[in-house]
Write a structure and sequence with these properties.
Blueprint (H helix, E strand, L loop, with lengths): L1 H39 L17 H7 L4 H14 L2 E3 L5 E3 L8 H12 L2
Helix pairs in contact: 3-4
């Protein structure tokens, strides 16, 4: 009876391990896909994932809106779809680039990914 229980424990652990592996791969694929979109839209010209350039890092943006994700999502969507004048890290101002994505669901996924960093 003990060996049968051990077998079931091993099977369940294997199933959970496989599920976590698939989740990790999917999340990794998502990271790659969003980074590709940001690169194609020249976002990395002014932003980086974890360091300040002309604009704040994506991690700094996420930290700013931690606990206020709805506000962050609204602000980011406005910036990337309407091209308002934004203040850069050095105090100068310029128009924010409009991202080349028209699908609102995809835009929201991208913004939520940034806010999750």
């Amino acid at each position: 009876m003990g060996s049968m229980r051990s077998l079931w424990v091993l099977v369940l652990c294997g199933m959970f391990g496989a599920a976590f592996s698939v989740t990790a791969i999917a999340a990794g694929d998502e990271d790659v896909e969003f980074k590709k979109v940001l690169k194609q839209n020249d976002c990395f010209k002014c932003h980086a994932i974890d360091k300040t350039k002309k604009g704040p890092s994506y991690k700094k943006i996420a930290a700013k809106y931690k606990g206020k994700e709805a506000e962050g999502e609204e602000k980011m969507l406005k910036n990337i779809t309407t091209g308002p004048t934004v203040k850069l890290e050095d105090g100068t101002e310029e128009e924010h680039k409009i991202i080349d994505i028209t699908d609102q669901a995809e835009l929201k996924k991208l913004v939520r990914w940034i806010l999750s960093l």
